[in-house]
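Troubleshooting entry. The earlier prediction with zinc ion gave an output that would not parse, so I re-checked the input for stray whitespace and re-submitted. Clean input:
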Amino acid sequence: MLVPMRILLDHAAENHYGVAALNVNNMEQIQAIMEAAKETNSPVIIQASRGARKYTNDAYLRHLMLAAAELYPEIPVAMHQDHGNSPETCFSAIQQGFTSVMMDGSLAADGKTPATYEENVAVTKQVVDVAHAFGVTVEGEIGVLGGIEDGHGAGGSGLDHVTDPVQAEQFVAATGVDALAVAIGTSHGAYKFSQKPTGDVLKMNIIEDIHRRLPNTHLVMHGSSSVPRELVDLINKYGGKMKESYGVPLEEIKRGIKHGVRKVNVDTDNRLAITGAIRKVFAETPDKFDPRDYMGPARESMKAVCKERMIAFGQAGNASKIKPVSMATMVAFYKK
Ligand code: G3H
Ligand code: 13P
Ligand code: ZN
């Protein structure tokens, strides 16, 4: 069933776990997540970037999500807009039935230029006012991630604009966001760190500081793929050319979860799993040409990654414990 993201994050906070927020662009990815959720009894956050919405023309995505909700009534699912670049993007997501939106006002609407604090507050507050009137959850971002995905991102190192904890506190008070994405040195994509990250480049201490100041705000870690060596090796074994790279180790994410992180964004690891599986089929059985022969293994491979994350983040076992709440109840909740 589709639920507001806020209730998943509240349950995660009350029970001290994190929820993976997994990006999708097609049917097999949604199926992989839902099967992983069913097998582990996990609540899930499924998210779509602007690029994903364009790729699926919104209508395919909406109907696929409705199919997931229909086929898995026992799994609470939040449908989230990832990195909304403007209030208009967030409003159109709400019209499409998303139960949660991210207004990423850390960048200007071009998705590239770092915005000022004042600009960020203005667009985020505008989204909060409208979204909450519909019971929709809002995630904001303060600080800027490194790297660039699908034209979105300031580029550069993850350390260029790490979050200032004092500003984070002011931002939450000024906007009323439900969840706050923070920049602690990570980047989107497969190339985050050139060696296993230490505290110099992955600033988990900033999360601890922000959580001390904002114990009731749900924190979000973007760029949280772990970039498992075995997935990169599989891609390279079957003809890929990926450079050596390090992601965010699961033990660091678990440390974040101990300090208020409730939403953990993972896209790249699933992309790696899918690509490795497809390359393997192509290399080992070059006579095959039925898409099901490679999309099927790709889906299985992504499912395995999703299950691993659901177990590691602690969301496994919690789907059946969550009482579904309607959007109308959330409207009343926000009015108070
Ligand atoms: O924000 C990053 C996610 O990995 C989505 O990427 O914009 O290429 O769909 P995308
Ligand atoms: P990764 O590229 O590390 O998977 O991050 C995804 C993300 O943050 C989506 O918003
Ligand atoms: Zn992100």
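This one parsed fine. The beta strands are 19-23, 44-48, 77-84, 100-103, 137-142, 179-182, 218-221, 261-266.
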